[in-house]
Amino acid sequence: MRRRRLLGLSLELLLLPLAAAAAVMAGRQRSLDRGPAERVVPRPARGGAGCHGEVIASDPAGTPLGLSSRCPHLGCRVDRVQDGELVCPCHGSRFALDGALRQGPAAEGLQRLSCAPTPDGARLTIRLPG
Ligand code: FES
Questions:
Q1: Is the CB–ligand 1 distance for residue 68 below 6 Å?
Q2: In this structure, which residue's CA is closest to atom 4 in ligand 1?
Q3: How does pLDDT run across 28-54, given as a tens digit for each residue?
Q4: What digits encode the pLDDT tens for the residues 59-113?
Q5: What is each CA distance from 18 to 32, 40, 67, 101, 127, in whole angstroms?
Q6: How many CA atoms lie within 13 A of 50 on its CB side?
Q7: What value does the CA radius of gyration of the chain take, rounded to a whole number of Å?
Q8: Residue 47 contacts residue 63 (beta carbons within 8 Å)
Q9: Is the shortest distance between the CB of 101 and ligand 1 below 6 Å?
Q10: What is the model's pLDDT at position 24?
Q11: CB of 93 closer than 6 A to ligand 1?
Q12: What is the residue extent of each domain of the chain?
């Protein structure tokens, strides 16, 4: 009886990591099935930009752009527009409205994201990186 119980417990201990791995794989597959996430945000006026969480909607010259708000320096969220530039609050990196680096310590510009106006033209759909 004890041997049978011990054998059952050993089997459970062996199967537990397999069950955990299967749950992780199932979660990954579900997130792949959903496709890349999108954000729908107000379309900025020409020459303006708006920070919306993980994305920035910008329109430097009449063509709307989507940018990642993740600062390429250490990953803080660029969250404001100041004097026509996008500013990272952590260490002061500054970016042009098209995402180009203007001032470090970041060594590169903001990542561009796929974006398209909604049918009514009032908002932008910005696709998050996969
Ligand atoms: S994280 Fe943005 S400047 Fe350092």
A1: no
A2: 91
A3: 444 455 556 999 999 999 999 999 999
A4: 999 999 999 999 999 999 999 999 999 999 999 999 999 999 999 999 999 999 9
A5: 21, 39, 40, 46, 34
A6: 14
A7: 23
A8: no
A9: no
A10: 42
A11: yes
A12: 1-35, 38-127
- Tell me how far the alpha carbon of residue 82 lies from the centroid of ligand 1, in angstroms: 16
Whether 88 is in the pocket of ligand 1, judged by its Cβ within 6 Å, is yes
Cβ(104) – ligand 1 distance below 6 Å? no
The protein residue whose alpha carbon is closest to atom 1 in ligand 1 is 74
- CATH architecture group of domain 38-127: 3-layer Sandwich (2.102)
86 lines ligand 1 (CB under 6 A): no
d(CA 110, CA 97): 10
pTM of the model: 0.72
Ligand 1 centroid vs 100 CA: distance in angstroms? 14
Six-digit token pair at 128?
Answer: 């998050």
